[in-house]
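User: My collaborator sent over this chain with a note saying "see what the structure looks like." That's all I know about it. Can you take a look?
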Amino acid sequence: MNAPLTPPHQPRPHDPWQVPPSGSHAAPGGPEPLDAADSRAELLQGAVIAVLLTAAGIVLGLLWLWLAPRVPLVSDDTAVFLKNSEGEDAIGADGTFVLLALAFGLLSATAVFLFRRNGGIPLVVGLALGGLLGSLLAWGTGTWFGPTSDVVARAKEVGKGVTFDAPLELHAVGAAMLAWPIAAMIVHLGLTALFGPRDPEPEWELPHGEPYASTSGSDSSAPGAEPAFGAGDDGKAPGEWPERR
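Assistant: Without extra context I'll predict from the sequence alone. Here is the result:
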């Protein structure tokens, strides 16, 4: 008779419900648990990402100011008119901002994924918050350094019949502000799903800690194993009764 692998009075190894022995918890004032340290590191990384993306909004605003089409205006000393009433330059300013914001979302999500492939909620929150704040800062930067918003004063300054640029404006503010954070979250989620690390498969164990194995190929000659159902010692086929004598 074989002795059990684990004495009955001792808990099984690797038991998920095993109560840790007394004194295993960190003492007050001792080193910080590993999970708490990881959480603090992720929160710090998320805050740094949000700050960096917010600062990148200045670059987005300058690019928008440089690439956005201008809306020409003209004055006749009584009112200010659009020089080309059928032009689509005003819509082009919105489209330029949205396209640049989508590009910044793609680049920022790729950079964050390459920086930390494991991901984490603080990183995603920092990515989305930084994209939103960066878009707001880009909007303010473009309008601040762009043409003046006082159209009447500018018309009097340039004189009658002289063409000047209208102030840089956003009409679809909601779509423009959300383009960067939404694009960043979608791209980061896709990269994490495709190229992120995978969790290891769990290993099933029997009650005594023995690894699970199929019994289809088990040896019937092992101690305690029941004989296979087959021909008996008298050579009879399975299911036949022995002949009476």
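A starting point for your reply to your collaborator: The radius of gyration is 36 Å.
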